[in-house]
């Protein structure tokens, strides 16, 4: 190991969720504590980890699941972070104001303080993922969150498909790209289609790691969750949470069909050495990228 290496031990908690908020959160907290005992300094939880994925249906009463920040969920995570001296990335269905709700990632620092939050910027609206009904797009402009272990480039699920988002986080100084996620298959998809989707999901994120020379953490849900409206067959969340290094190499990967806490070490200093041999940032033609600020080119 190099003298100037800054290695941190990280964990992500991939879990199946039940229709029981307290049970889901208790499971997450138990896994956080277990990871801390084995030396983890950072734990990442999946998207909307305290509830079932309620966005499969448009139901007005689901807005009652939302809470403020700070609020009950962040208070609990703050206590766990402080007691275990660990940084936690959690997920909250946030009520920001009357009629304004966000899908929000929160970062609790190792002293229990709220280091910051990120409100999901890209909001999907597809069969089974009716998020535009619930979530207002974020307005935080891809700013990393400062913590005791580094600057965390936290984004959420649908954001992970956009190279512009990852690049903005990198340009703003992120040390790690982090994606709490809730993605899965339609049970009616055939096996070939399922494999194409899973491969695309991992490849696009590994490409963000490569293009920005940054380590990446993606924490996904797992297990089948029914559509309570019975308009569809529900979602089979495909798990496969993973961590990648700054050349896109897989450091660790979870199974697809079970709850699992995944752990690995990440050397934050590798970004410097990789950028010296792959100088993508040096060679960027910033004078020629104006089209990126348009909806479409010609």
Summarize the helices and strands and which ones pair or pack:
Blueprint: E1 7-14, H1 21-37, E2 42-45, H2 72-84, E3 87-97, E4 100-108, E5 114-119, E6 125-126, E7 129-130, E8 145-147, E9 150-154, H3 163-171, E10 176-180, E11 184-185, H4 191-212, E12 216-219, E13 222-225, E14 235-238, E15 242-244, E16 250-253, E17 260-267, H5 270-277
Parallel strand pairs: 1-2, 2-3, 9-10, 10-12
Antiparallel strand pairs: 1-17, 3-4, 4-5, 6-7, 8-9, 11-14, 12-15, 13-14, 15-16
Helix pairs in contact: 3-4
Explain what the structure shows.
Helices cover 23% and strands 28% of the residues. With 298 residues, it is α+β, with helices and mostly antiparallel strands. The protein has a single domain (8-284), classed as Nitrilase/N-carbamoyl-D-aminoacid amidohydrolase (4-Layer Sandwich), CATH 3.60.110. α3 runs parallel beside α4 (191-212). The protein starts with 6 loop residues before the first strand and ends in a 21-residue tail after the last helix. The model has no long low-confidence stretch (mean pLDDT 96).
Output the radius of gyration. 18 Å
The separation of the N and C termini measures: 50 Å
Strand order of the largest sheet: 5-4-3-2-1-17
Largest sheet: 6 strands, mixed
In the CATH hierarchy, the architecture is 4-Layer Sandwich
Based on secondary structure, the structural category is: alpha+beta
**The named CATH superfamily:** Carbon-nitrogen hydrolase
Mean pLDDT value: 96
Strand content: 25-35%
- What fold name stands as the CATH topology? Nitrilase/N-carbamoyl-D-aminoacid amidohydrolase
List low-confidence stretches: none
Overall number of domains: 1
